[in-house]
């Protein structure tokens, strides 16, 4: 059953943008500022559990920490008549997985540009002591004016000074198996290099048209992700440049210590690979295939 509120506190709801799981996102107006925003709510018709509500509030609170052009901004969150909600930046655009579905394999230049902008957003998260922990094509947004933004902070968590996540490590492995860093599967501490692995797996998928490991059940894929040696991207993509091939291979090293040591080092390598390819890339809507009506809107097909 679809729940469409008319108002959430000071926000006038116009139309649904997308829904999935326990939550839904709506285009809305902040009647105090006149600004159009996106309002995400936990759907009361789905009877969200206490754990669902805790995760929702966590996602909102993490998102409010950041104010960066490559991270979707969360302005505020609250509860109205028992319904938890968060208010976000309204971004017109297309998720990366939707772009990949439309075009198939992506060019080397486009892959590098998307990864470069994503890495800038992740660098800001890491600077504030957080790992995203769920980087994948569905959590990367390309706006109509060509700006790449990382979003969905539901699994994000803080990192202590020694590199271990604050609090206990969860016994359950959470995330999408095709992009999980091996250390998550092995219940080892994670840091910014874990997000780097997931971004590398996303780059592999963009270039090859398939994730690094795709055969088997989710559990089998996760286990292979941790223990099975990966073929290099050059085995799947002919003609890829040496800098890009080396970059993706290093990002996907099983041992975090063999990946790039810092965000700055990764970003420098991405920038160097872009310059080596030497092709300018325009990610704006005018340069992409027109999406079907089913895919219009930045959260169309959105999932919790």
Could you explain the architecture of this structure?
- Helix 3 (108-127) runs antiparallel to helix 5, helix 3 (108-127) packs antiparallel against helix 8 (263-277) and helix 5 packs across helix 7.
- It contains 8 helices and 11 strands.
- It is an alpha+beta fold and 304 residues long.
- The protein has helices at 50-63, 96-103, 108-127, 182-185, 192-208, 218-227, 242-251, 263-277, and strands spanning 7-8, 11-20, 23-30, 36-42, 74-80, 83-89, 93-95, 130-131, 140-143, 148-150, 157-158.
- The chain folds into 2 domains: 7-90, Phosphorylase Kinase, domain 1 (2-Layer Sandwich); 93-287, Transferase(Phosphotransferase), domain 1, CATH 1.10.510.
- It is globular, with a radius of gyration of 19 Å.
Secondary-structure-based class equals alpha+beta
The number of domains is 2
Helix proportion range: 25-40%
Strand order of the largest sheet: 1-2-3-4-6-5
- Based on DSSP secondary structure assignment, what is the total number of beta strands? 11
Task: Please describe the structure with a list of short key phrases separated by commas or semicolons.
single chain, 304 residues, alpha+beta, Phosphorylase Kinase, domain 1, Transferase(Phosphotransferase), domain 1, 2 domains, 8 helices
What's the SSE blueprint?
Blueprint: E1 7-8, E2 11-20, E3 23-30, E4 36-42, H1 50-63, E5 74-80, E6 83-89, E7 93-95, H2 96-103, H3 108-127, E8 130-131, E9 140-143, E10 148-150, E11 157-158, H4 182-185, H5 192-208, H6 218-227, H7 242-251, H8 263-277
Antiparallel strand pairs: 1-2, 2-3, 3-4, 4-6, 5-6, 7-9, 8-11, 9-10
Helix pairs in contact: 3-5, 3-8, 5-7
């Amino acid at each position: 059953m679809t729940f469409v509120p008319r108002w959430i506190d000071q926000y006038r709801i116009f139309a649904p943008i997308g829904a999935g799981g326990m939550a839904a996102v709506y285009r809305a107006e902040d009647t105090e500022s006149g600004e159009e925003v996106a309002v995400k709510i936990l759907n009361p018709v789905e009877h969200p559990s206490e754990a669902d509500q805790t995760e929702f509030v966590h996602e909102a609170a993490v998102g409010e920490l950041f104010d960066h052009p490559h991270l979707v901004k969360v302005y505020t969150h609250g509860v109205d008549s028992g319904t938890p909600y968060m208010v976000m930046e309204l971004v017109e655009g297309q998720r990366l997985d939707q772009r990949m579905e439309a075009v198939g394999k992506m060019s080397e230049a486009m892959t590098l540009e998307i990864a470069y902008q994503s890495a800038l957003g992740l660098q800001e998260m890491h600077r504030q002591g957080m790992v995203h922990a769920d980087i994948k094509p569905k959590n990367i947004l390309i706006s109509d004016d060509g700006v790449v933004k990382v979003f969905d902070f539901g699994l994000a968590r803080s990192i202590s000074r020694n590199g271990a996540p604050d609090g206990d490590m969860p016994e359950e492995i959470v995330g999408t198996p095709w992009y999980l860093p091996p250390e998550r599967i092995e219940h080892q501490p994670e840091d910014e290099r874990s997000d780097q692995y997931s971004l590398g797996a996303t780059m592999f998928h963009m270039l090859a048209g398939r994730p690094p490991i795709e055969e088997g059940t989710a559990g089998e894929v996760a286990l292979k992700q941790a223990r099975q040696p990966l073929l290099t991207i050059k085995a799947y993509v002919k003609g890829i440049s040496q800098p890009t091939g080396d970059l993706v291979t290093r990002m996907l090293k099983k041992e975090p210590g063999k990946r790039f040591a810092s965000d700055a080092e990764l970003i420098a390598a991405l920038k160097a690979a872009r310059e080596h390819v030497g092709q300018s890339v325009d990610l704006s809507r005018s340069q992409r295939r027109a999406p079907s009506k089913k895919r219009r809107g930045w959260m169309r097909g959105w999932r919790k």
